[in-house]
Amino acid sequence: MEIFINVILPIPLEKQFTYCVSEYEAALLKVGMRVAVPFGKSKIYTALVVEIHNRPPLAYEAKTIHNILDEHPIVTSNQLKHWQWIADYYMCTQGEVFRSAIPSALLLESETLILPNKDVIIDEDQLKDDDFLVYEALKYQNILRVNDIMEIVDKKNILPILNRLLQLKAIVLKEEIHEQYKPKMVRYVRLGKKYNSEPELEKLLSSLTRAPKQSQVVLSLFHLQATKKKPIKLHELEIDSKSSRAVIRALINKEVLEEYFIQTDRVAFNGSKALEPPKKLNEYQVKALDIIKQNFKNKKVTLLKGVTSSGKTEVYVKLIAECLSEGKQALYLVPEIAITTQLISRLLEYFGSTISVFHSKYNMHEKVEVWKNVLNNRPKAQLIIGARSALFLPFADLGLIIIDEEHETSFKQYDPAPRYHARDAAIVLGGLFNSKVLLGSATPSIESYNNAQTGKYGYAQIDRRFGNVLMPDMELVDIKSQYRKKRMKGHFSERLLEEITETLKLGEQVILFQNRRGYAPILECTTCGHSPQCPNCDVSLTYHKQRNQLRCHYCGHSIAFPNSCHACGSNTLDTKGFGTEQVEQELNSFFPSAKVARMDLDTTRGKHAYAKIIHSFENQETDILVGTQMLTKGLDFRNVNLVGIMNADALLNFPDFRAHERTYQLLTQVAGRAGRTKKRGKVIIQTFNPYHQILKQVTTGDYTGMFEEQLYERELYKYPPVTRIIRISFKHKEYNKLNEASAWFAQSLKNAGKIQVLGPEFPSVARIRNQYLKHVMIKIPKSVSLQKTKKSIKRIQNSFDAIAKFKGVRIIYNVDYM
User: What is the pLDDT of residues 419-466, one digit of tens each?
Assistant: First the structure.
C-alpha cells in the first residue's frame, strides 16, 4: 500500500505538496517533523509534514522524499492551527508563515556546487574573460561554491556566466544539503577512571613529583571539585592551576585526565539564588488585579489601562507567578528589543533561571536553542520574553499571554509576509491554548479601548502613579514666536535650555525626543535649490554628519558628502530640518561638561548596543539621552526629571488617519519617562501650534477626550474600528505597466460592490529600490463579511494573474492596515 505525506514548503505558494514515503519511513514520521524534499529540477528544501495519508495526487506523480531530518516533531498541532489562521486572515501562504516562524538554522536548503565536466574538452578561445577565470579556477579546485565564483569574477550577478558555461557543457551543477545549526559543546575535564581508587591515586601523585606543573594541575582539579561540586571546565582548570593548555593536553594524552563535552545553551539567564518575592501592591494595583482575575474567569481578553509609572509591571509579575505555579508557560510580548534589557534584569529578581528571551538580535544558533527549550517545556523556558516573533515559538502548555504597550505600531509586521499584527495574533493563540490574555498600556489603541467600552474585552485601570507621585508638569513652548523674536539657540528654545541647565545643576538626568535620525533630512543648494536624491527611491538623501555621508533610509544607498552642488557647481550647501545627530551636536556645544548619548537606529545596530546605552544611562554615567521613539516604550529611569520634545508638529502633520492618535500616544509615553520616583517631573513640548487640540489633551492627560474625538472622526470618514481596512499594494519597475495593472484591479474591485474602494494612488514615496508603488485601499463595513470579501479579492487576483501583460506586477496585501 502506497503512503503519502502532505508538506508545507518555505516558499510563497498557496498549496501543500504531496510526496511518497515507504512504510518504514511512514512509521517514523509524525505531523510536525521536517523532511528534506526535492522540488523543481534539482533544488532540495526543508518541508514540514502536516498530514500522512493514502491518497495519491491527481495532477502529478508524487516524488519520494530525500530524507527525514527529525526524530520528534519540532512544531506542535496548535502551532499549525495558528499558522493556518495567520495565512487565512492576513492573505498570505502557509509557506510564508512557515519561513517566518521557524529559525533560519532549521530551514536546511541545498547549496549549488559547481564542478568541472571532465568528459568534455573545451576550446578556451570560445570563453569570455569571466568564463575563462571560472574555468581556470576549476582546474585547480574540483568544487566551487556560488560565493567563490562571485569573488573570482568580482560580480554579484554570476548567472549569465554559469549559463554560458552550462551551454558549452564545461561545468556540471550539484546540490548539497548542509545543516546550519551546530550545538555549542563546552570542553570539561575529570580524573581518569583508573585513578578512582586510593592506591592508584597515591601512585599517580608520587609519579608526578618530578613534573611540578602537571602535579599542580591535578591538585587544582581536586581543589575545584571540592569547592564547586560540579563539572570542571577545561579553561577553569587552566586559570586555577596557572598552567598552559599544553600541560593539560599532556595529562589527557597520558590518560591521567579525561576530556568530555557537554552541550550548553549559548544564552542562559541565571538569577540570584535567593529569589525576591513579588512586591506588595498598593490599593489601586490590588483593585485592578482583582478585576483582571474576575475577567479571566469569564474567559475575556482584558485591557489594563494604567498611567505611566503606575506599576503595571508589578501586576504582571503577580499574574506570571500564579501562572508558573500552575506549571504552565507564560509569554510576555514587548514592542521593542530595547525594553527587554531592563525588563530581564527586573524579572530575574523574581523568576531567576526560568526566563528565556527571543528576538531578532539573537543569532540563528541562539534562536534554535530557545525554540528547543520551549518545545520540550524545560525549566529554563517557563517565562518567555520577546518581541513579536516570540509568538511563533512551539509552546507546550501556554497559560498566560501579556502584551505590554499594546498600542505600539511595532507589533505590526510590514515586510516580508506574513504582515500580521502580534496583538491580534496573540489573542488567537491564547484562544487555541485556552490561556489568559492581558493587554497593557497607558495609552491604549482606539480599537482596543473601543472593544473594552463595548464589552468585547474586560477592562481594568490604574489611574495613579505608584507611591502617589504626581504626573509630570507639562508645558507647551511656542517656538514660532521664539523664532520671530530671535530667541532660539539652534533648535532649542530659551525655556528648554533653562530647564536643562537647572536639571543638570541638581545632578538629575534629561531625555530629549526627536523622531528623526541622522543630522538633517535634506541637504539643499541655496543657489539653485537642488537637493541630492536617491537614484533608487523617490526620496531625498539624509545627511549623516558623523559618517560624513548622505544616506537613503529606504534602500541604504549612500554617497560621500559633496563639496559642491551636483547641479550648478556652487559650494553654498545648507541643511534643512534636523535629526537626533544635530540635537546631540548642539547639546555638546551648549553643555560641554555634560555627557550626551544618542539612542536611534544608527547607534543600536550591534547586538549589545541597546544594553550598553541603557545601562550607562541607568548608572548615571550619561547626563542627557537623545533619541527617537525607542525612548518612548516602557523604559524606567529613576533619575530623569526633565523630558524635552524637540518638535511635536512633525508627528501631528503626518499623512495618516492615525496621526493624531499616535501623536497623543508618543508624547504621553515619552513624557511618562519623567519624574518616576518621588519628585514631580517636568516636560517641555516645543511646537509651532501650541493651541492644537491634541497637544492640549496631552498636557491635561485627557485620554477619554482624545478617544471620543477620534472615534467620532473615524465614524464620520469610515475608518477603523468602524470598518476594516485592507490595503493592496502594487509593485513593478515599469511605471506604465503598474498604472494599467492597478487601475484594472481597482475597477474589478469596484464592480464587486458593497465595499468602498479608494485609489489607486501613489504613496508619498512612490518609488523604492527602483520599484514603483501604487496603493488601493478597501474599506469593509462591519455588515459585510470579511471572509467573503477576501475570497472575492482572491478571485479577482486569479483573473489578474491570467492576463499576460500584467505578468511581473507584484501584489501585496496588508490586512488591518496601520
Answer: 999 999 999 999 999 999 999 999 999 999 999 999 999 999 998 888
* Confidence grade of residue 752 (pLDDT, cut at 50, 70, 90): confident
Cell of 240: 586555577
Is residue 454 classed exposed, middle or buried when 0-12, 13-18 and 19+ CB atoms within 10 A define those classes? exposed
65 Cβ contact partners less than 8 Å away, ≥ 6 residues apart: 5, 19, 20, 21, 25, 35, 36, 37
Please report, as a single letter, which amino acid is at residue 172: V
Q: Three-state secondary structure along 125-156?
A: HHCCHHHHHHHHHHHHCCCEEHHHHHHHHCCC
- 751 three-class SS: helix
Strands (E), 178-256: 184-191, 232-233
Omega before residue 418 within 30° of 0, cis: yes
CB 316 within 8 A of CB 350: no
Eight-class DSSP state of 623? S
Torsion of Cα atoms, 464 then 465 then 469 then 472, to 10°? -90
As a whole number, mean pLDDT of residues 363-367 equals: 81
pLDDT bucket at 269, cuts 50 / 70 / 90: low
- In degrees and rounded to multiples of 5, residue 330 shows phi and psi of -125, 140
Count CB atoms within 10 A of the CB of residue 686: 24
Considering the chain, what is the average pLDDT of its residues? Answer: 88
Q: What Cα–Cα distance (Å) separates residue 278 from each residue in 270, 402, 634?
A: 18, 17, 19
Whether the CA torsion 806, 810, 814, 815 is positive or negative: it is positive
pLDDT digits (tens, 9 = 90+) for 487-498: 899 899 999 999
- Cβ contact 84:45 at 8 Å: no
The label of the residue with cell 504597550 reads 405
682-687 and 473-478 as β-strands: parallel, antiparallel, unpaired? Answer: parallel
User: What region, left, alpha or beta, does residue 520 occupy, with left being phi > 0 and alpha being psi -120 to 50 degrees?
Assistant: beta
The reported pTM is: 0.83
